[in-house]
Design a protein that fits this description.
Immunoglobulin-like; six-stranded mixed β-sheet; six-stranded antiparallel β-sheet; 2 helices; about 10% helix; elongated; disordered N terminus
C-alpha cells in the first residue's frame, strides 16, 4: 500500500510540473541582440551664452528578442581609451532619445575632461536589461567636443591649471596664483587668444609676464588693458627662524599636491609664528600647542636645533613640524 502511495504522489507531481511549465512563457535572449544606433555630429562646440539651449542625442531601440525593461545610458570617453572610464551623461528607461541643456551636457563632461578646450571624444549608447547582466552598446562615434567653464584666463604651460576668473563675465579677471619665477602668458579660455604684458600694458601676443617666486593676487582688466599684482603668501618669523630676531619672514612655498604651504630649512631652538604677507594683521600661533592655530595665538616653540619641514594648512588652520 505504501508503495502505491509513492507512485501516485510522483505521478501527480509530474502532472503538476508539466502543467506549470506549459503555463510559463519561455523568455530567451537573442543569440545576437540588436544594438542601438547612435546619431551624433562629428563636432560639438558648447557655448556659455547658449547654456539653456536644448541638445538631443538620438539612438534606435535595442532588441533583445523579447519585451524587455531596458535602461539606456548615454556615455562619452576620451578617444582611444576604449571606454575604460566612461562619463555617464544621462540614463533613462525605455527611451533611447536623450534631451538635455547645453549646460547639463557641459557640466557632465568637465568632471573628467578640461574646461575651455577641444577634446577628441567617443560617444555611445549602452542598453542594459534591468536586473540582469545582459547589455549591448552602439558603435562608438568619433566626435570633437569643446567645453566651457567660467570666463577664464589660464596660465600657459602651467602644469597646475591655474587661472584667473571673471566672476561677472565683464572682462575683469581676478585670482590667486603661485609662481616659481617662470615667465608665463595668459590664454583666454573662450577664444584661445594669448595675452602678455608689454610696457606694463596687457596686449594680445604681448611679452611673457615675469614675477618673482611667490604667491600673488592678480587682476587683469581686458577693458582697459591693465595688470595688477600684489604679493599674497605666508611665511614664518621668530627667534628660531633666520635671522633669529623676529625682524624678517621666510616665505613658504605652495605645495600644489597637498594644498598646504611648506618650508624646509635649518632652524634653531626658539619660537616662531605664521604671518600673511609679511604683516602682523593676519598671524597664527598655537595657544594650546595642539597643532590647531589661532589668530594672534601664542608663539610656537621649537625645542632643538635641526633641519625641519614645517607645513601650514590655512583652510583648516592646522600645521605640522617635522624634524628631518
Amino acid at each position: 500500500m505504501k508503495k502505491l502511495t509513492y507512485i501516485l504522489f510522483f505521478a501527480l507531481a509530474g502532472v503538476f510540473l508539466y502543467s506549470c511549465e506549459s503555463d510559463i512563457e519561455k523568455v530567451q535572449v537573442k543569440a545576437s541582440p540588436v544594438a542601438p544606433v547612435l546619431t551624433v555630429a562629428e563636432s560639438i562646440t558648447l557655448d556659455r551664452d547658449k547654456a539653456s539651449d536644448s541638445l538631443t542625442f538620438a539612438a534606435t531601440e535595442a532588441d533583445f528578442g523579447f519585451q524587455a525593461a531596458i535602461t539606456y545610458y548615454l556615455e562619452a570617453a576620451v578617444a582611444g581609451t576604449n571606454f575604460e572610464s566612461p562619463i555617464e551623461i544621462a540614463s533613462q528607461e525605455l527611451n533611447p532619445v536623450f534631451k538635455m541643456t547645453v549646460s547639463e551636457f557641459n557640466n557632465a563632461l568637465i568632471q573628467q575632461i578640461p574646461e575651455s578646450q577641444t577634446t577628441n571624444m567617443e560617444m555611445r549608447v549602452r542598453a542594459a536589461v534591468n536586473s540582469s547582466n545582459v547589455e549591448v552598446s552602439s558603435d562608438a562615434k568619433q566626435v570633437t567636443i569643446r567645453t566651457y567653464g567660467p570666463p577664464s584666463l589660464y596660465l600657459v604651460n602651467d602644469a597646475h591649471g591655474q587661472r584667473l576668473v571673471s566672476a561677472n563675465n565683464d572682462g575683469v579677471y581676478t585670482g590667486w596664483i603661485y609662481t616659481d619665477g617662470t615667465a608665463f602668458t595668459l590664454r583666454n579660455g573662450d577664444n584661445d587668444k594669448i595675452y602678455g604684458l608689454t610696457g606694463g600694458v596687457v596686449t594680445e601676443n604681448g611679452d611673457p609676464i615675469v614675477l618673482a617666486k611667490d604667491g600673488y593676487q592678480i587682476t587683469v582688466n581686458l577693458n582697459n588693458s591693465t595688470f595688477d599684482s600684489a604679493v599674497s603668501s605666508w611665511g614664518i618669523i621668530g627667534s628660531a627662524i633666520p635671522p633669529y630676531d623676529w625682524s624678517e619672514d621666510i616665505t613658504m612655498v605652495w605645495d600644489f599636491d597637498n594644498n598646504v604651504w611648506t618650508i624646509t630649512g635649518d632652524f634653531v631652538q626658539g619660537e616662531f609664528k605664521f604671518r600673511k604677507d609679511d604683516d602682523w594683521a593676519v598671524n597664527f600661533g598655537d595657544n594650546d600647542f595642539d597643532g590647531s592655530l589661532e589668530q594672534d595665538g601664542a608663539n610656537i616653540p621649537l625645542s632643538a636645533d635641526g633641519n625641519y619641514t614645517i607645513t601650514l594648512d590655512v583652510d583648516n588652520a592646522t600645521y605640522t613640524v617635522t624634524k628631518n
